[in-house]
Amino acid sequence: MRGAGPANTFEVKFTDASVDNVHWRQVTRWEAPDDWTLVTIRRRHIVKAWGPNPDPVYRGSERIEFVIAAGEGGVGFIEVDQLTLLELPPEPSSPPRPTPPPPPKPACSPPDRRWTATPRPRGAARRSGPRA
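RE: above sequence
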């Protein structure tokens, strides 16, 4: 896709066979790219716009419409080339089984056995105050 014009609202509308139910991908303040750019619209980005069908989930369409709606400028154009629609695999009939989380890591590592404490001689005073 490529195009020209000031920031506008870009809409891709997906309609069913009755043309009464519309789902869309709407992007406000959209600026068309000057050079050819791959634009991908994922199913999760398509939401119900209007229509009598109470089902809000996008399940496919019969028609696609590209719209540049008046935003700041109200003028502009887009060119679309090599439009490709990909059929997705069917959703599984049951959700995937959860995987257990990894075991928790210990809060602290075991002491290093190479180091030994040096005992303080009896009667030796403890240091107090800030260390230099």
